[in-house]
Amino acid sequence: xxxxxxxxxWLPGMLAAPEPIRAEVSAVEYYRPDGRFAPDANAARIALAxxxxxxxxxxxxxxxxxxxTWQEVDRLCRAEPEGRVVRTRHGDPMLLSxxxxxxxxxxxxxxxxxxxxxxxxxxxxxxxxxxxxDLLLGPDNAAAPEHLGWSRLRFxxxxxxxxxxxxxxxxxxxxxxxxxxxxx
Length: 184
Description:
By secondary structure, the protein is mostly helical. The protein is built from ten helices and two strands, in the order H-H-H-H-H-E-E-H-H-H-H-H. It has helices spanning 2-9, 11-16, 27-30, 39-56, 59-78, 96-118, 126-137, 144-147, 152-159, 167-176, and strands at 85-87, 93-95.
């Protein structure tokens, strides 16, 4: 929960910063395999979330902080014009709308992580599942999970590294031309 709050809390600073001239990176390109998802970068993200969680002292205060953060971010983003470009903390100039897609991905996949941590059945809202699947496959390739014999949730768990993929499954994924995103 602390990590999800942190990844959303980047937005006020991004919106207050000077606007880049043009977007150069899409949401899919944001998840490219480079240093941003290297083990040391992942460890730094985990440490930041742990520090934030420790500051909150309780689950209730963490939930209250998240509630205040998402409401502020929602208000700020709604005030921005269509086509607004922001610079991510990684230096990527991208459309605000594309960056917001990356936040949906973060909330969705960490919701799967949370369900796993709590020993609960994983779930994802249909809207979030649509966003993540479209990002992975493109909006015209919505039938890919069925081509693999997977439910949509199983596909999303495998595609985001939450469920291991076998060698045979990897071969079929390659044959279908599916590209996994690099996720930390």
